[in-house]
Amino acid sequence: MHEVSAAITIKPNASRVLKSWDFVPERSGMVALRGMSLIDGTSMKTLVPTYYKDCELMWVLQMYAVHRVDLHSQLRQLATQVEGPGRSCEVRVRAKVVDPDAQTQKVTTEDGEVLQTDLVVAANGVHSTAVKHVLDDDKIVQAGDTGWACMRRLVPRDEILADPEMAHMIVDFAARYFTVADGAAGLICIRVESALCSVSTWIDYDLLYSPFCLAIHAGHFP
């Protein structure tokens, strides 16, 4: 489980759900987001100095950033542990579902095994083919090209702190969001223990080679 820059932000309402499952943020190295700001990527002027300010005061619970693997690892541990209320779950990997049946709550795997339960959740994103089985329509339009690309990478926090022009951006695990006409970028600390930062860019496919995008790829912000 070594996904590249798979960062997730956990909003306060999601933090409430995790808390009800006895999820411990510190155990997964989650970073509490308290110093977020929105910046104009062309002038580097701060537009919103305190983005999502006072989450705990307004919504009781904190907002976090976390590496997807760290989040999944603790969720899997909580779901499969024998101790605690309810029955533990069995996690099956490489068990591809080829025929879900929404009417009988059955799924058939690639090797022919048929499983049945009270509820089937298809959670494989916008590219899921389960929609046509639920609506019983083979002509359901699946997700297509939006014309936008998202590129993500992990950067050691120490390298950013060593750069005098960028160090101030992540002091105290701050998060920064940059906006320009052609796209946007985010710089977020996602793991306390190993101090990783996730750098993400969103940009129109037609502008992949714009000065903004090339600057990001070169390791610099415009």
From TrEMBL:
Q: Name one GO molecular function term.
A: monooxygenase activity
- The superkingdom of the source organism is Eukaryota
Q: Which UniProt keywords apply?
A: Monooxygenase, Oxidoreductase
Write down the InterPro entries for this protein, in alphabetical order: FAD-dep_Monooxygenase_BioMet (IPR050493), FAD/NAD-bd_sf (IPR036188)
Q: Which family does it belong to?
A: Belongs to the paxM FAD-dependent monooxygenase family.
PANTHER family found in the cross-reference section? FAD-BINDING DOMAIN-CONTAINING PROTEIN-RELATED, MONOOXYGENASE
Annotated protein name in UniProt = Uncharacterized protein
